[in-house]
Amino acid sequence: MTSEERREARYRRRRQRRWENKKARSEALGPIDRVFSYRKMFRYGLKCCCNVDWKQSTQNFKPHLFSRTAINRRDIVHGVWVPHNCQHFTLRERGKVREIDAPRIIDRQIHKTLCKEVLIPLYSPCMIYDNGASCEGKGLHFAFRRLKEQLHRHYRLYGRAGGIALLDLKGFFPNAPRYQIFAQHRLIFDRQIRALADVAVAHSPATGQERGMPLGLEPSQQEMIFLPSPVDNWLKCQASVHGAAHYMDDYYVIYPDVEKLKDIIRRLVRRFEAMGIRVNKSKCQIVPLTNPFRFCKAKFQLKENGAVIVNGSRGGMKRARRKLHLFYEEYKQGKRTLAEVHQYMECQTAYYKNYNDHGRLLHIRRIYYALFHDALEQAPA
Length: 381
Fold this sequence. Notes:
By secondary structure, this protein is of the alpha+beta class. Helix content is about 55%, strand content about 10%. It contains 16 helices and nine strands. The strands form three sheets. The chain has a four-stranded antiparallel sheet, sandwiched between helices. The protein has a three-stranded antiparallel sheet with strand order 7-8-9. Strand 8 (about 300) and strand 9 (about 310) form a beta hairpin. Helix 3 (about 40-50) crosses helix 6 (about 105-125) and helix 13 (about 315-330) packs parallel to helix 15 (about 360-370). It starts with a helix and ends with a helix.
């Protein structure tokens, strides 16, 4: 047997073991009546009401949770459940306009059960560790911490040689290929559960018939987190790039050789395009590690001594100054209390303490005390 034949035989054995592990995880979930048991659905129905008791829809849903859970479970087991229409609204967050589709709370109960009991147990083992968006125990600061760790590791091995490539996926949610999302459901071996997952995707709002996943739906978040996993696994395993990660649609790749890094990025973009995922090439760039760079609106700097300095969003200071002056005018007019202004300052303090922004924090505190000095002196201790 030649070396190529042995390599092919090893690949087939590994592929067979991976397929058996995926099948075992799916079979461990059980049939649809056990996955969507009354006890589980009732518990997730209660979780849907947490922190939203002030909503009228929640106040209408919670008193009838016992009967509504039974009705939803009956529809799911018999395969006749169809999601209701979502509430569409536009949200402007930090200067960016986003189209949000919020599901009804009776559908959120089913969405949460589907995610917690099916999608997360099946998708999580197939994702890389550095994919931490919307994952329990991870998040944005986990991504920042991993980037700092990878920069430290790179500095120990290569110093500040090489560069970091920053990629951005264009319209990650609106341009998501739905045929790839339906293909992901092959990890669900139970036909009834797979049909339910297909219904949740097929009836969700979209920009077109074959593209788009809405913001605001929990299954949509889980599907989109797992969508680039084939490319992630190629980058980590086949390309052997350890200094790489992404937070939702923001990617970075650290490599000691800039020319090889360009070739890796070209192959990475081709794989994204083959999957139907669009890359915003105008925002893709390679930055030398001797220069500062931005990732998820935070600025990173690798110093000559190996220290990594992280600064928060530079736009936050401008907004904070404008808000404090606006709050001061509203306070003089009696439209805002001093306690509300103090609460805003606590939020700003908590934000800047996560970064190396002690100077910015002192600057905003000086503005706060200069504007509200007289009010703070008269306030009771």
